[in-house]
Amino acid sequence: MQIPENSKIVLIGDSITDAGRDPSGESTPWGAPGFGNGYVALINACLQVWHPERRYRVINRGTSGHNVRDLAARWQTDVLDLKPDWLSIAIGVNDVWRQFDIPLRPENAVFPEEYESTYRSLLEKTRPHVKGLVLATPFFIEPNHSDPMRIRMDEYGAIVRKLANQYDAVLVDMQAAFDRLCEHTHPMAIAWDRIHPGHVGHLALARAWLEALGFTWR
Amino acid sequence: MQIPENSKIVLIGDSITDAGRDPSGESTPWGAPGFGNGYVALINACLQVWHPERRYRVINRGTSGHNVRDLAARWQTDVLDLKPDWLSIAIGVNDVWRQFDIPLRPENAVFPEEYESTYRSLLEKTRPHVKGLVLATPFFIEPNHSDPMRIRMDEYGAIVRKLANQYDAVLVDMQAAFDRLCEHTHPMAIAWDRIHPGHVGHLALARAWLEALGFTWR
Amino acid sequence: MQIPENSKIVLIGDSITDAGRDPSGESTPWGAPGFGNGYVALINACLQVWHPERRYRVINRGTSGHNVRDLAARWQTDVLDLKPDWLSIAIGVNDVWRQFDIPLRPENAVFPEEYESTYRSLLEKTRPHVKGLVLATPFFIEPNHSDPMRIRMDEYGAIVRKLANQYDAVLVDMQAAFDRLCEHTHPMAIAWDRIHPGHVGHLALARAWLEALGFTWR
Amino acid sequence: MQIPENSKIVLIGDSITDAGRDPSGESTPWGAPGFGNGYVALINACLQVWHPERRYRVINRGTSGHNVRDLAARWQTDVLDLKPDWLSIAIGVNDVWRQFDIPLRPENAVFPEEYESTYRSLLEKTRPHVKGLVLATPFFIEPNHSDPMRIRMDEYGAIVRKLANQYDAVLVDMQAAFDRLCEHTHPMAIAWDRIHPGHVGHLALARAWLEALGFTWR
Amino acid sequence: MQIPENSKIVLIGDSITDAGRDPSGESTPWGAPGFGNGYVALINACLQVWHPERRYRVINRGTSGHNVRDLAARWQTDVLDLKPDWLSIAIGVNDVWRQFDIPLRPENAVFPEEYESTYRSLLEKTRPHVKGLVLATPFFIEPNHSDPMRIRMDEYGAIVRKLANQYDAVLVDMQAAFDRLCEHTHPMAIAWDRIHPGHVGHLALARAWLEALGFTWR
Amino acid sequence: MQIPENSKIVLIGDSITDAGRDPSGESTPWGAPGFGNGYVALINACLQVWHPERRYRVINRGTSGHNVRDLAARWQTDVLDLKPDWLSIAIGVNDVWRQFDIPLRPENAVFPEEYESTYRSLLEKTRPHVKGLVLATPFFIEPNHSDPMRIRMDEYGAIVRKLANQYDAVLVDMQAAFDRLCEHTHPMAIAWDRIHPGHVGHLALARAWLEALGFTWR
Amino acid sequence: MQIPENSKIVLIGDSITDAGRDPSGESTPWGAPGFGNGYVALINACLQVWHPERRYRVINRGTSGHNVRDLAARWQTDVLDLKPDWLSIAIGVNDVWRQFDIPLRPENAVFPEEYESTYRSLLEKTRPHVKGLVLATPFFIEPNHSDPMRIRMDEYGAIVRKLANQYDAVLVDMQAAFDRLCEHTHPMAIAWDRIHPGHVGHLALARAWLEALGFTWR
Amino acid sequence: MQIPENSKIVLIGDSITDAGRDPSGESTPWGAPGFGNGYVALINACLQVWHPERRYRVINRGTSGHNVRDLAARWQTDVLDLKPDWLSIAIGVNDVWRQFDIPLRPENAVFPEEYESTYRSLLEKTRPHVKGLVLATPFFIEPNHSDPMRIRMDEYGAIVRKLANQYDAVLVDMQAAFDRLCEHTHPMAIAWDRIHPGHVGHLALARAWLEALGFTWR
């Protein structure tokens, strides 16, 4: 596992990261759902069960519906002020989705150029202050590679891959995790809207994240 | 993994198994929480993520507050009628707990003799009809081995161990899973009441269950 | 318009027909939503606005989640007892969907042979008692014709087309209505789950139904 | 259809326009009811179903209980700031109604002189900035032309007709739409309070609006 | 006042009589609203304030939505079993109303012949057992005497007048009470739906009822 | 009736006046309970039923729990700004009550000297601006004249009587109204707490108020 | 303390005994309020704090609104079936109260003769089966001894005193406990309705009960 | 009893003191739960029942979740502004607990040095202004004296004992009260989380508090 003990790990993103977390506080053993019910909670649980002695502190800062522009607006309070040792970013789903579900309202979407430049400016001011960085690709649980929204989502994934390379970050390929799952499973069994997975899909994300970080299961 | 593909796996027990499941139906990808939020949901997710092609069907039949006497009362509909291939039983916590939190009401507790005989009668009529059996020890997240309730819980654990041996069952030592966790963690960080764990404790249970069944993480 | 004045028209089906109707009573001018908020309400409104003097009586008997097996179970009370002049049936979506979103629970799905035989037995006992019959194809708002669930849905549509032919029914091709809409619109803008459309999709269904019945807009 | 493609159409008014819309946002395909459940939603649905390729954007800015004085107070944010291509105004029902249901509180009503001058001032500052303008008459679903409130409502309708003429606007005669419906239908079957119609009455309004704009049903 | 002291007075009817009463019990001084908030509560209050020493017992048995057919169905338990000294009946509004607001569902209305015969059969079996009888006309708060629903309501009022005459009952002309009020007040200020009055209209009914019974205000 | 037509009548006081009114607005015919459910609503209803042509406008400004000190704090907005023609004040119950139910918290009560001086200062600044003034005595529905709280309440009643005399006001003796009612009725049948009457007690208050103002019942 | 250790003590009565208990189960340490919030909970707490080693089991069977007739109807299940060692009865408040707060409904009250005979029949069939019996007088927190309801309540208290004497029961004079409290406190500070005390009044009852049974505070 | 009559007694602390109090006001006889449901309410009730003539005024200022740092932040408004005659402080449970249940978030705990210095500074500025002071030890209902959290809690108890000595305060040893109770009772029967006791545990605290102050039960 690449992340050293006693690290504070902040994960920021959209509803996939949020997963219904209670924004009023961090999670506690008695259930205040500050971790949400998604991949962040699963990553934390794996870290605490397999490596309780390493004392990793996990903080969820996902917010449903957010795109990279929304992240920029809360970057100071939700990332920099927390002084994380490691930072994980998973953004882009809503930037693309709004281009397809409400195409008549382009002001709600973020197009590729703005996506990349905004994302880059966040990395510029943050990279020097964190020990480690994790960037996750956005995804669309759509096995049809010629679907226009899948094509567009893959463009954003390529931008994330490029940024991960330029900013010395660990890349988590969330799209690949779902593509693998779709080999045996119809998207309908993972997420009715092809975006918000259930417990199984979130564990696939957590596994991809942990294994990208070098986590070993024993 | 000992359980062959296409198996129907029923897990029965008390609130630890139940974990807030919606009794009105099995879980679906779109979120009806038939799996609950505990170790059963985590076992299912691990099976679907690591082995989607094996098509395991997991069914939660835990009910909060139940003891072995309550299990016997719903055994026909909740176990035999479902015709499981594999059956997992985790019962005993409430049988013991009621002896300590409401000692003036002995009719709410199940004492060792009745516990063993009722448990045995359930196994007698069920073992021939299932391909595999899993018995989990009850537990008390109390590192003080001389606590009277811990002593009593260990007695019940010994009964389960004996029955597992006699009825050719895989034993899942849930108490041991928590004892290991308590080496690095105070019980207060696992479960305020030392009985109902949060997400971390449930993953420890799921891990113990899976590894007892020979599950490998790759 | 093929349907003569003073006709009682019953529309039965699943959640598409139901559309949130209040099953406790028929709709009234003051808002008890017995019509639901879907294509049935729109058909009724068009009939009352364009032809108020014809006094058509529209009755919604859709029920969310139902497949053809569920329809058979309530056929006596929800169809025969109402003595409709015209009957419209729209069923099959759930029969197919369950094969893909919960594939491990085949008992929840209805496979083609049972679908056709059950559907046929309902038509056998009903056709002599109604003046007119309307059969609507099930649909999947999926423009990728090689998607396994779309392929399967088209099979059920073919069964409905055959039955409409054999039982002298007006066919409403709901799948075709959505295919036309998808020429200009991504499925995400019609229905997040590709099954339950919003107001726009329901008006497309109502239009298809009315025009199949020979309704003219002036 | 007079309105060219890619137009942004804002409809402002009182509860008839509002129709229960969620003011927190525009409508989406997945149901946030920004369109409300009235004639605006129906106009939008007709535009999207008959002419999906024209990409009309419809925005509802009705607010329950409002009179022309209330409209003036929110004109900047709810009309001018939105920079509509076409603007549709339907106001006057409450201006009149309050004169009859709470006659002891004249400060809640808007009398004809103020109604016309306020309305005119809104048109003065807005007409140069919009490509097209639609003015709808207020209405009272009361077939008795000698009823005092009907007489008064007709006065306001005449003011709207005059203004439509002076400001080059399309007139939608909502009162006439209901008068036609009342030829075959008692007001009790349209709206218990003779003001707020159900689904049928709203479709009559949508039809009147669309046909005034030259919409053809093909 | 015609009614002697210590009388038990039962008032039965529809929503006008019901007026939101809590059917689970009679009213008490501490507020369980068994009297409802309408004319029955006001009659009771007048009797208790002006004549506390006479100890009249008032019982409300109105039920919203009921017509004379519904009254017949609950006559035994709600009238005969209570053994009233005096009985007051106010029924007919819904019998008529349903002919106009849901004309396509004639089974929900009660037409004149059935209205009179059902009403008569109730009086036949009840008159011998009560000391006094009060019959109230149904009403429609519609000053336009040529409105079709007003014409129909007056027919029913005439039936009640005839029955009152034949069965030695005190007639309360509720329609006349509202006609008087409408001389100075538009119906909109009495009841938005012209059926369910507010506090003022209910006091007009209570006054008409009391004065018909010879109540004097000092 | 002393009050001339077209008068605006404001009634201010504590919970007896308030009676559950909705402070967000005046009452309307369609039920927004701005009048509350007490003597104010009954006074208004009597005025509208007996004298609809006089167009009295009644405004309730009672607030639960208030004493004369609280009235002074909201006097500008709730009395002077409304520019009433006639003003009715009913205050003092809480000023006394708090001396007996929470005697350990004297800061919550208003003792006689402060009561009189505060009351007088309100009258001083208001009397010149109103055409008529009504002062109501506070009351305690306690027939035992030697009860300490009754004795104290009578002291406050005497202060009100003196002020009414000095400021040319109509006195409404609410205490006397209840004393009369108690001749035939135990306090338990009027108000469980001997303060907050039900419908009957409020009508007794309304009658006392109206008759003090010279209202005739015909 | 007269009651020997390991005794099961059942307390039955009306709302004073009930005190908001949750009838679905006995109280537990984690708060299910089976004891209610009144004198029963306080008696239990005193027994557990002063004498934890005596293991008294306290069971609340009070039900709000009940009179002695209601007790008789549930005597078998709520008393005899529980096989109490000691039984405490506190009934009579509602038997009297209904004679004063709803005097027009005598069927809701229980008059002295029926009260005594019903009470006696319960004692007859129960006395032989219990080791100890406690009878509590009903009470009215009314210091005016000439109040008609107080006079009547004292009659019922005398009946209880007589029965306690005849059936070898410990008498708890609840009326005397409140009379003592009223020497320093106005009834308004104990209970607004002079029946349902707050925490202070309930502790006065618990103290009276315990001291009558010979409980010593050290 | 050491506290003289007419004293105002303020009790401040955490959830043990708070016990669900309604912070919007002090308790009243009619039930506004300003006292909460814990030891403060019981202390007050004992004082009012045994010594009603002494007129003690008890004020609860506990707030759930607070540690000594939180107390300091509200000291001015919740203590000094109230000008208590006697002040009772019970703080420290959360200061310790957070070190064990969320050890990864040290900023939520208060360590011994800060605990003592903050506590001392509060006493410094308060002692001269109060006539009497009561300091209660924090506690952990854990009979295992070698449990790490019990050891730590005892350290804090020792600090409180030292401060009580230095500032001339009455010490209430809450830990000792629970240790005594645990001689006969398992912690599970007192408090599931070993922190928040039920009614029995709170009475043990009230008894300890009262007896430390020299209260005699007569």
Report on the structure:
The structure is a homooctamer of 218-residue chains. With 218 residues, chain A is of the alpha/beta class. The first copy, chain A, has one domain: Rossmann fold (3-Layer(aba) Sandwich). Helix content of chain A is 42%, strand content 11%. Chain A has helices spanning 15-18, 39-50, 68-73, 75-78, 93-101, 112-126, 148-166, 174-182, 199-212, and strands spanning 8-13, 57-62, 86-90, 132-136, 170-172. Chain A has a five-stranded parallel beta sheet, sandwiched between helices. In chain A, helix 2 crosses helix 9 and helix 5 packs antiparallel against helix 7. The longest helix of chain A has 19 residues, at 148-166. The mean pLDDT of chain A is 95. Chains in contact: A-B, A-C, A-D, A-H, B-C, B-G, B-H, C-D, C-E, D-E, D-F, E-F, E-G, F-G, F-H, G-H. The C-D interface holds C 27-31, 35, 37, 41-42, 44-46, 48-49, 52-53, 181, 183-185, 188-192, 197-204, 207, 217-218 and D 27-31, 35, 37, 41-42, 44-46, 48-49, 52-53, 181, 183-185, 188-192, 197-204, 207, 217-218. Chains A, B, C, D, E, F, G, H: It comes from Terrimicrobium sacchariphilum.
- Helix count, DSSP H or I runs of 4 or more residues of chain A: 9
Rg of chain A to the nearest angstrom?
A: 16 Å
**What assembly state would you assign to the polypeptide chains in this entry?**
homooctamer
What share of the residues of chain A lie within helices? 40-55%
Remind me, CATH topology of chain A?
Rossmann fold
Category by helix and strand content of chain A: alpha/beta
CATH architecture of chain A: 3-Layer(aba) Sandwich
Strand order in the largest sheet of chain A: 2-1-3-4-5
Q: Look at the structure and give the CATH class of chain A.
A: Alpha Beta
What global shape of chain A is seen? globular
Largest interface: C-D, 36 and 36 residues
Distance between the termini of chain A: 11 Å
Number of domains of chain A: 1
Beta strands of chain A, count: 5
At the fourth level of CATH, the homologous superfamily of chain A is: SGNH hydrolase
Mean pLDDT of chain A: 95
Beta percentage of chain A is 5-15%
The main pleated sheet of chain A reads as: 5 strands, parallel
Poorly predicted sequence stretches spanning 5 or more consecutive residues of chain A: none
Secondary-structure element order of chain A, as H and E?
EHHEHHEHHEHEHH
Pfam families (chains A, B, C, D, E, F, G, H): Lipase_GDSL_2 (PF13472)
Domain SGNH hydrolase-type esterase (chains A, B, C, D, E, F, G, H): 11-202
InterPro entries (chains A, B, C, D, E, F, G, H): Ester_Hydrolysis_Enzymes, Lipase_GDSL_AS, SGNH_hydro, SGNH_hydro_sf
Protein name (chains A, B, C, D, E, F, G, H): LysophospholiPASe L1
